[in-house]
Design a protein that fits this description.
This protein is α+β, with helices and mostly antiparallel strands. About 60% of the residues lie in helices and about 15% in strands.
């Protein structure tokens, strides 16, 4: 029996607390609520001489304030319906009396429209203070919603121990709490926005650092390429007496030496290359594979021409895999290609003036073309990547750096291939045209 006593006491305490909560606030506070007639008397005494309509408005507002506090005190969050079941009879009687008095004020004391107020805005009527209807509505609203006005009513009718409770159940307190919550939420949103902005700035700075580092890495080879291009151009300008490779078809210089073949020497060299594929076989494997052997045989045709020129000189030129049929006694023209500055060149083609055949040494023709286009292509590819990285650095993002790096690489490869192939094709074409011109002039 003794072991059950704590449990029984706990249940009794819980029921007592529940009954106290169901009874609502202290019922002793009800005796301090003024009668409806007393409210009118108090307002007229306190605000005697107020602008027209204000006393009636304050009276109506005070009725609504007192009725609202009663409903909030005993109705709780469930409103008037809960008030009807939970509130004591005295509270319901007071609430009904205040609402009836309010209806009487609104019905019997509602100000008529004044001619001098017709056509004016609410703000203008409030400023003039002579429009009874606007004064009524403003006083009624202020009596319910102004925290200071509600505090004055609490101090007027209730002792100190009930004043805070009265204010806490008023609409002004709810509005003040709502404004406080709204302000706190706004401050929280502002803090979140500031934090998000700070994070975004931090991320942008990190992206700028990455883009800046990548830009520096791109600018170093870009500067080196620019210096190499400048040096190559300066070298060509300074060395006008030395044969230099051409970077443009406009720099190509062709000239020819004619004469008669004194001797023709031709021999063939055979190159044999053998490759053995040693296949690894695991020692525990039962399979065996025979190593495969690949033999590659290639031949090169070497042609040496001894020519007595028309001015009596003898010269010797050698070619590899030149597709030309000649014999001693044939009249030939050897075409030389070089640059326009030095006016020098190397043998790039042979013309058999008797058979009107033309053979171009492709390797030598390509040999007079400079690899300068590779430098230019690499420069422009890096420039594209650097431009995209600079955009990322300027705007604090990392969007264009990697794509432009890939595009720059592809552009460099494409430009290098296109420019070099185009230069080779133009050189060969100009040699063919020049050689055919020699045949036509013969």
């Amino acid at each position: 029996m003794s072991s059950r006593m704590p449990v029984v006491l706990s249940l009794l305490l819980f029921l007592a607390v529940g009954q106290a909560w169901a009874a609502g606030p202290d019922q002793a506070s009800l005796r301090y609520y003024p009668a409806a007639g007393q409210v009118r008397v108090d307002v007229e005494a306190a605000y005697h001489g107020s602008p027209p309509g204000e006393i009636d408005g304050r009276t109506a507002g005070r009725y609504l304030l007192l009725a609202g506090v009663l409903e909030a005190s005993w109705g709780g969050k469930y409103g008037p319906k809960s008030f009807e079941h939970r509130a004591p009879a005295r509270a319901r009687q007071l609430r009904d009396g205040y609402l009836q008095a309010y209806a009487a004020v609104r019905g019997g004391h509602w100000p008529a429209a004044q001619p001098e107020c017709v056509g004016r805005t609410i703000d203008e009527q409030v400023a003039k203070r002579i429009c009874a209807r606007v004064n009524f509505m403003e006083a009624e609203n202020r009596q319910q919603h102004d925290f200071a006005e509600v505090s004055q009513v609490a101090e007027r009718y209730f002792p100190a121990k009930y004043q805070d409770d009265f204010v806490a159940h008023s609409l002004a307190k709810s509005l003040a709490d709502a404004r406080t919550r709204a302000l706190q939420e706004q401050e929280a949103r502002q803090r979140a926005a500031d934090a998000s902005r700070a994070l975004a700035q931090k991320e942008a700075m990190a992206r700028r650092l990455v883009a800046g580092g990548l830009l520096v890495l791109l600018l170093v080879p870009l500067t080196i390429l620019a210096l190499l291009i400048w040096r190559a151009r300066s070298y060509r300008r300074r060395n006008a007496t030395t044969l230099t490779r051409i970077t443009s078809i406009d720099d190509l210089h062709l000239f020819a030496t004619s004469g008669r073949l004194m001797d023709v020497q031709r021999h063939t060299r055979t190159h044999v290359t053998t490759t053995t594929d040693n296949v690894y076989v695991h020692p525990d494997s039962y399979q065996s594979r025979t190593p495969s052997t690949t033999t590659t045989v290639s031949t090169t045709d070497h042609l040496t021409l001894f020519v007595r020129t028309d001015d009596g000189r003898e010269l010797q030129e050698s070619f590899v895999d030149l597709p030309l049929a000649v014999r001693s006694g044939n009249r030939v023209a050897i075409v030389y290609g070089g640059d326009t500055r030095s006016r020098l060149g190397v043998a790039v083609a042979v013309v058999n003036m008797d058979t009107r055949d033309v053979a171009v040494d492709t390797l030598r023709a390509r040999g007079i073309a400079s690899r300068f286009s590779l430098l230019r292509a690499a420069f422009w590819g890096l420039a594209v990547a650097a431009a995209g990285t600079a955009v990322d650095l300027a705007f604090g993002m990392f969007v264009f750096a990697l794509p432009t790096l890939a595009v720059g690489f592809m552009l460099a490869m494409l430009l290098a291939f296109a420019w070099q192939r185009s230069l080779w094709a133009n050189i060969r074409g100009q040699i063919q045209i020049y050689a055919k011109g020699l045949i036509a002039a013969n």
